[in-house]
Amino acid sequence: MAFRAQTIVADVILAAIAFACAYSVASSAMPSLDVVTSLPSLNLSQFIVLYAALAGGFSMLFRRELSPWRYASIPDALVLARVAVLTVGVFLIWVFIIDRGRGLPRSTLFLAPLFQMVGSMGVRILRRALHERALDSFSPVKANSDRAAQAPSLLLIGPPAYADSYLRDIARSHDRSHTPVGIVSPDSRDVGQQVRGVCVIESLDNLDEALADLRRWNRYPRAILFLEEPGRLRGLTADQLGRLKTDGIRLLRMPSIVELAQHDGVTLLPIRDINIEELLPREPIELDRQAVGDLIRGRRVLVTGAGGSIGSELCRQVAAFQCARLTLVDYSEAALFQISREMAEDFPQAPTHAVLCDVRNARRLNAIFHEEAPDLVFHAAALKHVPLVENHPCEGVLTNIIGTWNVAEASKSCHADQMVLISTDKAVDPTNVMGATKRLAETLIQSEQTLGAGTRFSVVRFGNVLGSAGSVVPIFTSQIERGGPVTVTDPDMERFFMTIPEAAQLVLHATATCADGQGRDARLFVLEMGAPVRIMDLARQMIALSGHRDIEIKITGLRPGEKLTEALLDDMERSLPAAPNVMEVVSDSALRLTSEHLDHLEVLASAGEDAELRRALFDLVAQIRGEQRTAGTPNLRVVAAG
C-alpha cells in the first residue's frame, strides 16, 4: 500500500501549501491590528502544522474511497471536498480552544479549504491527463511521421456515455489500433456534444449523412464500432449495413453482457468483428449473473456433447464462472480436440479433462462419472439434424433416448446434485423422428425423478440457435458466398431464434432456478425466445447484409417431418414465470416411461428395425399427448398426482 502512503503525504503537503497561501492572501487583505494581550497566540508555522496534520488524518480516514491519481474522477472530487470541509471545521474548533483564534485572519477559514480542494484535485487531474496522454492534443503541429503512422479511422455508434467509457479505456490502455473520428448517437439531442475531444456528429437516423460528411472531410471510417448490442439500435437497416460491408468497412462491437461472464472488473476487452446473426432484428437477452455464479463457482461440472455448438459454449461460460473442475465428454474426436485446445488457451486457470466417449456406452459412461464425481451434469449430446435422423431413426433413438437414459443413470449413481437435459422446441407435437426422440427424452427425465430423491433432474427446451452447426444462418451464409441461390423450404416457414451465448446462459440460468426451487419433482423450463422470425425475411435480410442484391431465393418445399411453425408448449402444457426470460412448463400428463419401454426401444434400434421403431416411437408420444394409440402398444406408467 505504498501508493496510499505517498498520496497521503502529498495531500498533507498540498494542505500545508493551501493554508499558507490562504493565510498570505487573507493577511494582505486585512489591515494590521495591534492587539495587546497577556496570552500567547499561535504563529503561522503552528497554524500550518495543525491544519496539515488534520488534513492528513482525514485523508487516511477516507483513503479507501479515493482512487489512484491516474483514475481520478468526480466521486474523488466529492471525497476531497469532504476532507477539506472536515479539516477546516476541526481546525477552527482547535484554534478556538487554544487561543480563541487570535492572529488568524477570518477569511483564511474560507480560502484554505478552497485552495486545498483545488490543489488536491488539480494534481490528480494533471496525473490522469499525463496517464491518458490527454495533453498530446495541445501539441500545435504533429510531425509528418505521426500523421503517416495514424491508425485507421473509427466511427463510434452508440450513446455518448458509452463512448466516454470506451474513449477513457483506450486512453488508459494506450490503445492506438484505431483513431476515433466521430460519434453517431441514437438520440438527436446529443448532436454537437464533445466526448473527450470526439464530436457527436449526427444521430443514427442520419447515418448516411454522417458518412457523407466524413468522406468530404477526408475522415471516412475504415471501421465502425457498435458500443451496445446492435439489435438495440433502432434506425439501422439491413441495406445500410450491407452497403457498409460492401464498401470495405469493418463492423465491430464490444463484448455483450453474456460474453463478459465473470469479468466484472474489466472495462475494456478486445473489440471483435460482428457476426452476421448479431445484426438481425431481434431483442438481445440480458441476465443477472449472480445466481449463475453461485451455482457454478467452486463446483465440479461435466458436459456431454462438449464439442457441439451449445456444449462448447456451456464449457466456456462454466469455466468463466470459476468451476472447480470441468469434464468435457464427446464422441467426435475432432470436436473434442478443438474445444479442449480452446479451453487450455483461453481458460488456463480452469482445471479441465477431455474424455472421448459415446453416451450410448453405459458401462464406460458410469466409470467416467464415478471417476470425475461431477456436481452438475449438462447433457447436450444429441443427434439434432432433422433430415438425417429421419433417415436413420435407429441412430436417433440410441443417442437421444438411450444415451439420455445412460447419462441420467450415471448421474444418479455418482450422486450428482443436478442433471440437465438440453431439449428443443421440435419435441412439441413432434412430426419427425428427431422431435419424437427428444420428447421421449424429456419424459424419461421426468420419470427418473419420480424414482426417488437424490439427483435433481431438469429439462431446458428452446428453439433454433443462430450460428450453430447446421443451422440456417451458416447455410445461408455459405450459399450467399457462392453467389446463390439461397434455398428456403417454404415462404411461410417461421422459427424461434437466439444466439449461442444467450442459449447457454439461459440454460445455466434455468439450472440455477431449479437449484433454488422447492420440491424434488423434475422440472421442465422453456426459454423466452421472443417473436418467431420468418425464414424468408431472414434470407432477404442476410442477402441485404451481405451487400449483394442479385442473389436468387429458391423455394424447395418442405422436407419429410418438417413443420411450417414451431411452438414452445404442447396442447396439454402451460407455462408459469420462473425467472427473468425463463418459464416453467406444467403438464397435465401423468404418464411416464418405464425401463421396459426403453429396453424395447433399444432392442428395436439395435436390430435396425426402422419401421417398427418409428411406429413404437410415435405411439409412445401419442400416449404422452393423450392421443389414440395403436392397439397392442404397451401402456406407459401412470404417476399418481402429488
Write up this protein:
The protein contains 21 helices and 24 strands. It has 642 residues and is an alpha/beta fold. Strands 10-9-8-11-12-13-18-22-21 form a 9-stranded mixed sheet, sandwiched between helices. Strands 3-4-2-1-5-6-7 form a 7-stranded mixed sheet. Strands 14-17 form a two-stranded parallel sheet. α1 packs antiparallel against α2, α1 packs across α4 (108-131) and α3 (74-99) packs antiparallel against α4. Mean pLDDT is 79; it is low at 33-39, 138-149 and 260-269.
Average pLDDT works out at 79
Low-confidence spans: 33-39, 138-149, 260-269
What can be said about the biggest beta sheet? Answer: 9 strands, mixed
Shape: elongated
What share of residues is helical? 40-55%
Class derived from helix and strand content: alpha/beta
* Strand-residue proportion: 15-25%
Strand order of the largest sheet: 10-9-8-11-12-13-18-22-21
Roughly how many Å is the radius of gyration?
A: 33 Å
Q: Can you count the helices?
A: 21
